Amino acid sequence: MSRRALSFALVAACLGSAPAAAAPASPCRPIQSEGETYTICSVDLRRERVRVFWLGPDGLPYSSLSNLAEKQGGRLSFAMNAGMYDKGQAPVGLYVEEGRELKAASTANGPGNFHLKPNGVFYVKGERAGILETGRYLKAAPKPDFATQSGPMLVVDGKIHPKISADGPSQKIRNGVGVRDDGRTAIFAISERPVSFGAFARLFKDELGCRNALFLDGSVSSLYAPGLGRSDLSRPLGPLVGAVAR
């Protein structure tokens, strides 16, 4: 069975004998773009709280979406991986949780997608979310409640990242995040099949109407959406993002 076909019954089994909790209404739904299927999860930050997760109460990474869901006791309406991480499952760049900066922002140059600049930061402050190129984020110093750094930016001020080709050779299952409605709506997306960076960037710009969007990761991209009966399996993950009721 593929990781994308794991049934909700299996998810429930993973939760053991804990009392059953009503699953939150799903913010997630499938859409089509350029012949490819994506699942998007739209969150109104006035109704739900978007936050990031990394270390559990035991001080160890949550590591998987099913473990996070179990620890949250049915509160999550959705969750997915939230940025790149090292061999110890620690965030590669900036990571802020409950207003505490646990990892500093990285402005270093290097190989890989994270360093395909401009990279950026997804952050949440109160009932609004934002995405800023890393340098602009550091200048603005918004003091967020939650933040995660990743790269590259997919859409910057309404334009696709200048180094992303229309349809390059790299094809992977990808996930990312965009914002719209003056930051009141955060939109997360994951592809159902391998897609190019260009196709993924156009999804956010043209289909989802996001003036700014950030790539979170590829290959390990995973989604937990109980309303869709979905909990993807993946290799051990680093930072995660999800929504809970306010």
The residue-averaged pLDDT reads 91
**CA-atom Rg in angstroms:** 17 Å
Q: H/E series, N to C?
A: HEEEHEEEEEHEEEEEHEEEE
- Order of strands side by side in the largest beta sheet? 1-2-13-12-14-10-11
The main sheet comes to: 7 strands, antiparallel
Overview features:
single chain; 246 residues; mainly beta; 7-stranded antiparallel beta sheet; 5-stranded antiparallel beta sheet; 17 strands; 36% strand; disordered N terminus
What does this structure look like?
This protein is mainly beta and 246 residues long. Helix content is 13%, strand content 36%. The chain has helices at 8-14, 65-72, 134-140, 197-207; strands at 28-33, 36-44, 48-53, 76-81, 95-97, 100-103, 120-125, 128-133, 146-150, 153-156, 159-160, 174-180, 185-191, 212-218, 223-225, 230-231, 240-245. The protein has a seven-stranded antiparallel beta sheet, covered by helices on one side. A five-stranded antiparallel beta sheet has the order 3-17-4-15-16, with helices on one face. A five-stranded antiparallel beta sheet has the order 6-5-9-7-8. The model is unreliable at 1-21 (pLDDT under 50).
